Please model this.
Amino acid sequence: MANTRIVVIGGSAAGPKAAAKARRIDPHAEITIIQKEADLSMASCGYPYYVGGFFDDRRMLICTPTGVVRDPNFFLNAKGITARTRTEALSIDREARTVACKNLDTGESQTLPYEKLVIATGSSPFIPPVPGIELEGITTLQSMRDADYLRQVRDEGKVKNAVVVGGGLIGVETCEALHLAGIQVTIVEMLPQIVTFLDWELAKLVENHINSNGARVITGNALTEFVGKDGTVTGARLADGTEIPCQLAVVAVGVRPNTRLAADAGLDVGRGIVVNPQMQTSDPDIYAIGDCVEIPHRITGKSVLAPFGDLANLEGRVAGQNAALGDGATFPGTFQTGVCKVFDYVVGSTGLSETAARKQGYDDIVCAEFAGLDKPPFMGGKLLVIKMVADATTGKLLGVQCVGPGDASKRIAIAAMALHGGLTVTDLVNADLPYAPPFSPALDPLITAAHVLENKMLGRMKGITPIEVKAKLDAGERPLLLDCRGPDEYDAMRLGIGETLIPLGALRSRLDEMPGDKDAEIICYCKISLRGYEAACLLAGQGYTNAKVLEGGIMAWPYPRER
Amino acid sequence: MANTRIVVIGGSAAGPKAAAKARRIDPHAEITIIQKEADLSMASCGYPYYVGGFFDDRRMLICTPTGVVRDPNFFLNAKGITARTRTEALSIDREARTVACKNLDTGESQTLPYEKLVIATGSSPFIPPVPGIELEGITTLQSMRDADYLRQVRDEGKVKNAVVVGGGLIGVETCEALHLAGIQVTIVEMLPQIVTFLDWELAKLVENHINSNGARVITGNALTEFVGKDGTVTGARLADGTEIPCQLAVVAVGVRPNTRLAADAGLDVGRGIVVNPQMQTSDPDIYAIGDCVEIPHRITGKSVLAPFGDLANLEGRVAGQNAALGDGATFPGTFQTGVCKVFDYVVGSTGLSETAARKQGYDDIVCAEFAGLDKPPFMGGKLLVIKMVADATTGKLLGVQCVGPGDASKRIAIAAMALHGGLTVTDLVNADLPYAPPFSPALDPLITAAHVLENKMLGRMKGITPIEVKAKLDAGERPLLLDCRGPDEYDAMRLGIGETLIPLGALRSRLDEMPGDKDAEIICYCKISLRGYEAACLLAGQGYTNAKVLEGGIMAWPYPRER
Model:
C-alpha cells in the first residue's frame, strides 16, 4: 500500500501540531505543511511579551525549548515532515484531491496531491474601514512581522503616544507591552467596557487598574478616523470628536476566521469552517482546526469561535490522529476559558459570564461576587475578586470570572475543571484542594466564593451588587449603608456614599442606632464583606428582614471611592 | 423556645469554624468554645514559616486579616461566641448532656450543658518511645509553644546542628525552616523514602533537591535513641549505629487523633472518631470534626485519617450548620489532596499514588510520568515532574503527583478538581484550561501528562520507568540506551549509564547504528523524553518492535547522574 499523503495548510500552531501527531501515529505517511509566512510554529501568544521586553531574544518565539529553530530543516530532520514556507495555498480541488499553491518568493506554482487534507488557515485581524487606516504607524499584533515592528518601536524609543483600538485580550496585553516600552498608551473601546468576557463590574476593576498604572482607557467611544501628516499617523479621532494624538496605533478589534479557501472549495462554512467532533469538515477527507473553525460551546451547545492557542493545539492533535488513523479521536468543544496578564492583574474567565448566560437565555441563574486573598496575609496574600454564576434550580456551575493581583490563573484553571466535571455549587463547597500557606488560604477563595453562592441559593444571605447599590443611590434611595470595619480602616479607605461606620464588634451594643422600622433596607459591608455578612446575620437575628450584604465589599466596588 | 446550647470542644481550626457557622445560621444559639490552649484559631500550618523567618510578627498567626487578635474578646464581640481558653474538657456525660471541664489556670471545675456538642479535639504528635526522648532540646512543631520555642532557637542563633525525625509534610517543612535559620539539618526517615504520599521515584527527586540545598536526608534508618549531656540532647543514634550530633531535634513522625474523650463517652471510634457524612458521631447530638475523625476516601470509599487544615474548616462548616439547623449539610470525604513547599520545590499529590493504589488492591492500573515546563521558556518556565495514575480499563483518573520548582500547586489543584468530576484520561486530553504565556505553556503540563498516559493506554507508546531501567542495568542487561539530545546538551548533563548519543534530527540518517535484531530492546530518552518519544515512534516505523521511552527523561531520573 502506498504511503498516505497528508497535506496541512497552515504552519502556525494547529497545523504543525496536526502534522507532528500524524507523523508519530504513521511513520510512513508523506506529510507536507504549506505555510504562507516565512516562519513556522511561532509562539504568537508570546508577541506582547517580546514587544514588552520580558525577553529580548526573538528566536525564542520560534525555537524548541532547547534552542533549535523550528524551520523546514528541523521539521524534515527531527520529524520527517516537509514544510514549504512562503508558500500560499490558492485553491483546493476536492475532486482531484489536490491543493494548488504558489511560492511567494519564486512565483512558482505547484499542485500537491493529498489523501487527507488539514486546513489550519487561522484568522486575520479585523481592520475597521475608517479613513486614514492606511497611514504609516498603524499596525496589528498578529504576525512575527507585527511583533518585529513593535519591538523596533520599543528599541528606538521615539514614539511617545500610542492608541490601542480595542480592549479585548490582545488590546490589553498590547497596552501593557507598549506602556513598558515607555509609551503613553490610550485604549479606545467602542463598547461600554473592555475585556467583554467579563461582566461589567469586573471589567471595570481591570479598567481602574490600567488607569492606575498610568495608561488610559476610554470606553463607549468608537474610533471614527485616523488623522495623519505626510502619510504617517498623528492622531485618532473618536465618535465624540475627541482627537488623541499618537505616533502609533495598534488595531486589536478582534480576528476573523480565514475561511475563503474552504468556502471556495464548497465546504460548509458558518462563522467559521463547520466541523464535526472529529474535526472533519463536510468533506470527510478534509479536516479543519484552529482559529478558522467554529466549535461547540460545552455549556450552550452552540457553535462559537474560540481562537485560542491551546485549543488550536488540542484540535491539531485530534485532526492529526484522525488524518493518520481514521476517525477515532474527538474534540468535545470549549468553555471559552481564557486568561491574560494586565500589568499586576491577572484576568480570567471560564464558562459563561452573567451577561453571556442571560444573552443565551439562561434566566434562572444565581450569581455571587466574592473578594479575598489568594494566600494567608502572613505569606503575602494578594487580592482576588471572583464572580461565580450557577443555574439556580440545579446549582450547576455555569461560569467563573476572576481578576486581581492574586493568582487568578490558578482559580480559573480549577473552575474550568469543575465545569468539565459538570459540578454543582454544592460539590465545590466541599472541594478538597491542596492547601499549604505558601499557596492558598486554608479555604481557597474559589471555595469561599462557592460558600457565598450557596448561602445566597439557600436564602441565608441576601446579596446586593455594587451596580444595584449605585442605582439605588442614583435614584435617590437612602438605605442604611453599614460599614462594619474599624475606624483606622475607615480613615485609610472608604466609599464615601453616605455610610455609617459601626465596627462589627460594636454592633451588638449599638443596635439602638439601627432603624426603628424592622423592614428598612440595611446594606452591610466591610473590606471584602465577610464581616458585612456577619453583621447581616446578626441583624436578621434581631428581626431585621431586609439586611443585605454588598457583595465583594469595598474591594469589588467598581466606582470611585472617597478615599 | 429556649435558645439552643451548642458546646464546641477545641478552638484551633475546625472548632471555631463550626462555632462561627452555627452562629451565622442561628443568631440566638448560646455557643461556647472550650479550648485547652491559651490561643484560639491559630494558623498552625503557618508555624514553619514563622520559624523559617518568612514573617516575624507572631501575632499574624492568631490575627484576623485586619490585625485583630482572635481572643475570647474578639469571639464575644464580633461573633457572640463564648470562648473559654486554658480550659480542658475532662469528660462528656451523654445522658445528662453535659461536658465537665476545668480551668487549667484556676483549677476551677465546671459542667456545661449542651443540646448539641461538637468534638474538635484535634491530634497529637506521636512521640516515639526511644531512650532520651525526654532530653532538653527535643520538640515537636505542633503548637504555638513549639513554634515560639523554635523561633527562639532561630533568633538566638546558637544551635548549629539539628535532626528532624520523620520526612513527612511537617518534617520537610521543618527542615527548610531550620535550614533558613542557619542550622545544619539532617532528616532521619525510617522508611525507604520521605514524603510517602508520593511514589518512590518522585520522593527521590525531592530528597535529591533537599540534599542539593545543603540539608541532608537519611532514609531507611530508624532513630533508636537520643543521647545527651547534662539533660540536653547532643545527638541522635540510628539503627545502623550512626550517631548524628545535634543540639536540637524535632520529632515529626506523624500525628494521632485525640479520641480519648469520645471513646470514654462510648462513641464509636476506629482509628479516628467515626462520623457519618453529616459529621455526626454515633450519638446524633454529638458531631466530630478535624484531625480527630476518620472520613471516607472518595476513591476507595474506605475510612482514612486526613489531618489537613482545609478539611478541618470544611468539616467545621458542615458540623456548625447541622448543629444549628438539623442535618442538611454533608461532607463527602477526601482525596487526601496535599501540597508543601520544600526549598525551591513544590511537592503535591491528590488521589492515589501508584503505591497506594496497588496497596488498595487496584492492579488494573496504568501510570505515566512526564517532565515539562510550567510556562514557555521565554517566560522563565520552571520544571515540573508529573505522575498520573488511572484505571486501565475505564481510563478513570485515580491520582496525580507533581513535584518540581514549577507551580505544582496549580496542577494538583486542577487534578483534584478532575478527580471531583470523576474525569477520565480522555476527558483530560482535551481539557480547556486558561492559557497565556505568563501562566502556562500552550498545552499545560497536566494535559501533556494526560497525552502521554493516553498514548500508553492506546499502546502507542511503550513507557519504561527509571526504576525498571535501573533494575535492568543492575541485573546486567544491556539494552540500547538512546539519548536523543544534542551534543552540547550531552556535554552539559548526562546519565552516564552506557548510553549512545544520536540526536533525534540525525536518527533517520544513522539507522545503520541500530541493532540488527529488530526485536532488540531500545530505550529512548532526552531531557524530558518528548524527543525520546519521537525517536521511539520513528524506530517503530522502521520495524523495531521493542523501542521504549524512558518516562520523564533525564529530569525525572532519580539516581545519580554522571554529569
About this structure: Residues 309-325 of chain A form the longest helix (17 residues).
